Amino acid sequence: MGDGNVVTGARVVNNKTQEKHEISCTGVFIAIGHTPNTKVFNPWLSMDENGYIVNNPGSSKTNIDGVFVSGDAADHVYRQAVTAAGTGCMAALDAERYLAAKGLH
Ligand SMILES: Cc1cc2nc3c(=O)[nH]c(=O)nc-3n(C[C@H](O)[C@H](O)[C@H](O)COP(=O)(O)OP(=O)(O)OC[C@H]3O[C@@H](n4cnc5c(N)ncnc54)[C@H](O)[C@@H]3O)c2cc1C
Known about the structure:
There is one protein chain. By secondary structure, this protein is α+β, with helices and mostly antiparallel strands. The protein has two domains: 1-30, no CATH class; 39-101, no CATH class. The protein has one helix and two strands, in the order E-E-H. It has a two-stranded antiparallel ribbon. Strand 1 (9-13) and strand 2 (20-24) form a beta hairpin. Bound molecules: flavin-adenine dinucleotide. Flavin-adenine dinucleotide binds next to helix 1.
């Protein structure tokens, strides 16, 4: 909720009880939850019990040859832009080396 200029509160609903109430506040941080959007890769890629794709430690390799993972899809610890970018770089290099080893680039 707002007054046209700033946030004045939030109207919330409890998904389990459907109970609604209002919280008076002057700022809001949106939390989107911690369920990784990886179902599309199930059952091919190995995942942990929470849906995070499992990579070989210290690399972006998955259980399938030539498939690499990076970012929040595989990271339940840090989940930060900078770590996602770093593992993205690892995955890009791993993919490039994979293709090169097969003479595909
Ligand atoms: C509210 C909030 C605040 C944050 N604040 C910070 C911060 O201050 N500092 C920080 O370092 N990190 C912050 N983060 C975390 C950071 O945003 C993530 O760690 C980072 O974006 C992860 O990058 P990613 O590329 O792994 O995933 P994402 O950025 O989530 O990218 C995944 C992409 O895949 C797309 N996608 C999903 N499913 C499909 C599909 N089936 N087909 C095609 N495309 C698909 C999505 O649309 C999305 O574009 C914040 C996150 C949130 C939600």
